[in-house]
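Summary for the lay section of the report: proteins are chains of building blocks that fold into shapes. Here we show the chain for Class I SAM-dependent methyltransferase and then a coded description of the shape we predicted for it.
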Amino acid sequence: MLTHDAALEWMTRWDRQQEGYLPHREERFTALIDAVEALGRPDPVVIDLGCGPGSLSARLLERLPEAQVVCVDADPLLIGLGRAAYPGLRFVSADLRKAGWTESLGLDRPADAAVSTTALHWISATELKGVYAELATVLRRGGLLLNGDHLDTDEATPTLSRLEHALHDRETARTFGESRPEDWRAWWDAIEADPALAELNQARSTAGADHRGSESRLLSDHVKALEEAGFTEIGTLWQHGNNRLLCGVRG
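The coded shape description reads as follows.
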């Protein structure tokens, strides 16, 4: 049985391995939550897309305790881990790639913001159009999509893209040197070996919730999909190298 304390230990380990890929992870969290706060509501309705175990949502709720945060993911293990670690969050099991995912959100009014960090690149460019189009149906006019991720521009500005990668790589090397944190694969290997997580690991295997590849890594994929979904203002709010916070305003 996964206890609250054990789940928090796993979350500490999760955050550490994620920071190995994102030296400015906490700064990006802060920028994203600043944007939600700048909407001016003490009680915003926020949808966390591809929430994983809830790292972003937990931080958002700490800053805005009156917010209604709905965490959406398709991975049973990450949802189970998040529920045990953060009992104050509401998790919804849904696959963003399948039409109708918004029906399970249980919203009592249109959302003020949809947020995501290091998640939507797993979705193909074609499927991404459907995700953003459906999101627009539950997001109020003037509401925000805030997506923090590594998004590249090599098909449009190859030299700038190469420099963005170089800046990110050098910052990572300066931050960690030879003592890089545990990586993604090692974290999952440890998760799969924990007897307390056997049931959640089985559920994950049955659901086929493995992540493979970077399906929509281009900034242009996201901009085009947002434009087609009716978002009128789209741009980068915050950036370090190719690590950026993309914002779209629902028209």
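Put simply, here is one thing we learned. The chain has one domain: 4-250.
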